[in-house]
Known about the structure:
Domain ABC transporter (chain A): 21-262
InterPro entries (chain A): AAA+_ATPase, ABC_transporter-like_ATP-bd, ABC_transporter-like_CS, P-loop_NTPase, PstB-like
Membrane topology (chain A): Peripheral membrane protein
Function (chain A): Part of the ABC transporter complex PstSACB involved in phosphate import. Responsible for energy coupling to the transport system.
Keywords (chain A): ATP-binding, Cell membrane, Membrane, Nucleotide-binding, Phosphate transport, Translocase, Transport
Oligomer: heterodimer
Strand content of chain B: under 5%
Structural class of chain A: alpha/beta
Number of strands of chain A: 10
Number of domains of chain A: 1
Largest interface: A-B, 28 and 19 residues
Amino acid sequence: xxxxxxxxxxxxxxxxxxxxxxxxxxxxxxxxxxxxxxxxxxxxxxxxxxxxxxxxxxxxxxxxxxxxxxxxxxxxxxxxxxxxxxxxxxxxxxxxxxxxxxxxxxxxxxxxxxxxxxxxxxxxxxxxxxxxxxxxxxxxxxxxxxxxxxxxxxxxxxxxxxxxxxxxxxxxxxxxxxxxxxxxxxxxxxxxxxxxxxxxxxxxxxxxxxxxxxxxxxxxxxxxxxxxxxxxxxxxxxxxxxxxxxxxxxxxxxxxxxxxxxxxxxx
Amino acid sequence: xxxxxxxxxxxxxxxxxxxxxxxxxxxxxxxxxxxxxxxxxxxxxxxxxxxxxxxxxxxxxxxxxxxxxxxxxxxxxxxxxxxxxxxxxxxxxxxxxxxxxxxxxxxxxxxxxxxxxxxxxxxxxxxxxxxxxxxxxxxxxxxxxxxxxxxxxxxxxxxxxxxxxxxxxxxxxxxxxxxxxxxxxxxxxxxxxxxxxxxxxxxxxxxxxxxxxxxxxxxxxxxxxxxxxxxxxxxxxxxxxxxxxxxxxxxxxxxxxxxxxxxxxxxxxxxxxxxxxxxxxxxxxxxxxxxx
Lengths: 267, 292
């Protein structure tokens, strides 16, 4: 009996090491409209996976399934199963707040809270009830260092986050996410509102972060996908058309549709 | 021909703007002239320090404090009741309720502001006061409490509607950020949305205060007509506005000192509401800059 248990847990941890996120037969409806038409996908841990595809192809909707951010959309309904480390995140008793601490998210437009830089990074810890000032300070410093923002803001941690430049704001939002120590970071076109220089900084950051985090990034920028990701998934009309190593997708895609898209023939 | 038409329209629009300005200037002028005439007979120091207001009696006193205390007391009760209720409603509508609820309940709430204030006054006098008397022994038939509470009901929509607008105007991306960080609904509402909308919420409260201070019918009907310097909400008081009504309706001689008291009282009221409106205008301007 006990032997069987160990065997099971070995298999479990094996899956964990290999696949962090899994989707099985996932369909998404907004009222009667089917936005995701049945997708199976497994996403590896400590890798960067890029979602590409034309606007309205469902890649953002699919990304937002992993931290249940679609729950607030009117008429949203999902079928199928999504697991993180083997655990179903759509089962009834799941604590959604807890899930979102484990699965951080960075949005398209930098969206810092209208609070100080310090308060922004400390927010996630404070809402968990952490009050220890020393710990908060250490954690804020550590997170800001991780995103290479510390040197730029260390003398003005009490200044409003809204006074920062767009690129700095986005790095602040990433720091805010890192502060609660998630294991997965979802990025929804994180650089689409930024200039090329700030974009380069964020991309560098993504490269650094994948050592510790599993990163899924939605992007409209093909070069970005090829630069930062290890795996690329091409979505079209709510379906997953092709999913493979980034190198393979960009040099020798299996499907004609993928090739058309990445060579800029449509979308 | 077309140019003439354009010109006529432009001048017509300009003149309507000028009319409103002229009316405002006129009101201020009349108030000031009569008030200056009043203060040439009554010392302004007495006006602000005397604790009695008895211009219609033989023994005349012209201390505005009793009227001011009546106004502030009823307004305070109204605000103390309306702010928590109004804010709760606005937070519920913007952060908790389904969208269809917002569409139906918000206009319904705004109807509260459309009820004629004279109706509120009699509601206070004939329903709320007897109700309160059943468990507050010694509550006078006219009192600040009942008038204040009903005035609070009247200004709830000012607070709930304007605050809800402010909350609604907070960019959706902030709500996503809050939920994305693992906030509960309560944390999202009180740690992110309310602080982000704070200037709009403050403006709504200031406008409500301004409305309460200027409110006339409810207090004239339900709070009584006895100017007295007190903070006791259970006894009759008289507000500045109620006094103005009382004198305007009475048979006081035009141009007499008694007649001019209403302008002195009026200008005091005007200064108050003017200050409050200016403050709210300033805050609103700062608020607009923040999200543009």
